[in-house]
Write a structure and sequence with these properties.
By secondary structure, the chain is an alpha+beta fold. The protein has two domains: about 45 residues; about 40 residues, no CATH class. Helices cover about 25% and strands about 30% of the residues. The strands form two sheets. Strands 1, 2, 3 and 4 form a four-stranded antiparallel beta sheet that branches. It starts with 18 loop residues before the first strand and ends with a helix. The chain binds zinc ion (ZN).
Length: about 90
């Protein structure tokens, strides 16, 4: 799966910024979505949002919902930090 950066304010078909939401957000369980229309090419698509975390009113994370790929990336990051720490301290892993 390629992680191409797409600007959500652009039409995915013709890259026009002349787009408009047709419906307000609908939500069910951990997803929300709405329909978008491009006024230039006339294509329709749906924006889908997924719940990523729960936090308190002042921003403290209560619970995070990570994709398997993100969990792996975090573990890799922690292992890299551990390795760097060990190299600095000249200890044997
Ligand atoms: Zn378009």
């Amino acid at each position: 799966m390629s992680k191409q950066k797409h600007d959500p304010d652009e039409c995915p078909y013709c890259q026009s910024r002349n787009i408009c939401a047709l419906t307000p957000f609908e939500a069910e369980h951990d997803q929300a979505w709405r329909s978008i229309e491009c006024h230039d090419c006339g294509e329709l698509w749906r924006e889908v949002f997924k719940l990523v975390k729960l936090e308190t009113e002042n921003g403290k994370v209560l619970r995070e919902y990570l994709e398997p790929g993100e969990v792996k990336a975090r573990i890799r990051g922690i292992l890299k930090q551990l390795k760097e720490f060990c190299e600095e301290e000249e200890c044997e892993p």
